[in-house]
Design goal:
Elements: E1 7-14, E2 18-22, E3 29-32, E4 39-42, E5 48-55, E6 63-73, H1 76-79, E7 91-98, E8 101-105, E9 111-118, E10 125-131, E11 141-144, H2 146-151
């Protein structure tokens, strides 16, 4: 497991749908509230980008400052399910599948939608960026198992 990789799929999870979690190294686990699941977003033309910086150090501890940018169909937020419906007013945890294994970003310190960009003259896709909120001290990046990742796609019992 490593922090960065070439991603092929993401699961967008509304942070309020998480009942509990534990994080540590490459062994993070989470439990979704009953009936909840993440919104699966498949790669479109190499369209996932994860950037990691550092945040803090002067007045609070140093943490990761990740951002996740993805291209999504412009109708995802009107026809999508779960987390995709309230994009601009929710906090998110994002699970990713890629060449580095399975990664989850935002557990305990969720990401927010920081930017939505689209141009109808060039594409029917929107570029959406998730990152740490302005006043947030940073976020988390953990590895998760394939089984944990796959379980986020189905409604929790």
């Amino acid at each position: 497991w490593s922090t960065l990789g070439k991603y092929t799929e993401a699961i967008l999870i509304n942070a309020s749908d998480i009942d509990s979690f534990s994080g540590g190294g490459n062994n993070a686990t989470l439990v979704l509230a009953s009936g909840q699941k993440g919104a699966v977003i498949e790669v479109t033309n190499n369209s996932f980008k994860v950037s990691v910086a550092r945040k803090g150090g002067d007045t609070f501890p140093v943490m990761y400052d990740p951002s996740v940018t993805m291209k999504v169909p412009d109708d995802l937020f009107s026809t999508g399910e779960g987390a995709a419906h309230n994009l601009v007013n929710s906090n998110f945890v994002i699970a990713l599948k890629g060449s580095n294994g399975w990664t989850i970003i935002g557990l305990g310190a969720p990401l927010v939608c920081t930017e939505i960009e689209g141009d109808s003259t060039t594409s029917e896709y929107l570029s959406v960026t998730f990152g740490t909120d302005e006043g947030q001290t940073g976020s988390t990046i953990y590895g998760i198992s394939k089984a944990m990742y796959e379980s986020l796609k189905v409604p929790a019992v």
